[in-house]
Amino acid sequence: QLQASGGGLVQAGGSLRLSCAASGRTISIYGMGWFRQAPGKEREFVASISGRGRTSFFADSVKGRFTISRDNAKGTMYLQMNNLKPEDTAVYYCATRQNSALPTTRSDEYSYWGQGTLVTVSS
User: Fold this and answer.
1) What are the two backbone dihedrals, phi and then psi, of residue 16, each rounded to the nearest 5 degrees?
2) What are residue 22's DSSP bridge partners?
3) Could you say which DSSP state residue 55 is in?
4) How far apart are CA 110 and CA 33, in angstroms?
């Protein structure tokens, strides 16, 4: 089970850190990722990280502003979001793969999903 948290309301240019805590399952060897869904839009990839945290991918829209990390000892993944823009407003979901340590941008390659946390960026 994954529990996403850390969302909230922030002004443009501000920062937030999202957390994704895993329970009932060891995540340390699996690739994990963040996706987001804005109102009226499809879910889109944001960032992903390998099981050991050595490799990560980012959507072009967040490169240079977002970083992804994980603390396997705590069973938690993070998304640090800086210089937030109104277009970053969305529900953010975390996910983990079931059989691979590799990061991936494809949502259909993730097996377990958190419930989402809302990020609202005001202009």
Assistant:
1) -145, 155
2) 2
3) -
4) 8
* Average of per-residue pLDDT across 69-86: 96
Q: What is the pLDDT of residue 55?
A: 97
Residue 11, number of CB atoms within 10 A of its CB? 10
Strands (E), 12-122: 16-22, 32-37, 44-49, 56-58, 66-71, 76-81, 90-96, 112-113, 117-122
Q: Considering Cα of 52, then 102, then 20, then 111, what sign does the dihedral take?
A: negative
Structure confidence at residue 21 (pLDDT) = 94
- Give the DSSP H/E element, type plus range, for residue 9: strand 8-11
Instruction: Quote the tokens at residue 82.
Output: 């800086």
Give 107-116 pLDDT, tens digit per residue.
Answer: 999 999 999 9
What pLDDT sits at residue 29? 83
Q: Around Cβ 110, how many Cβ atoms within 10 Å?
A: 22
**Closest by Cα among 26, 30, 23 to 2:** 23
Q: Would you state the pLDDT for residue 28?
A: 67
SS3 of residue 68 by DSSP: strand
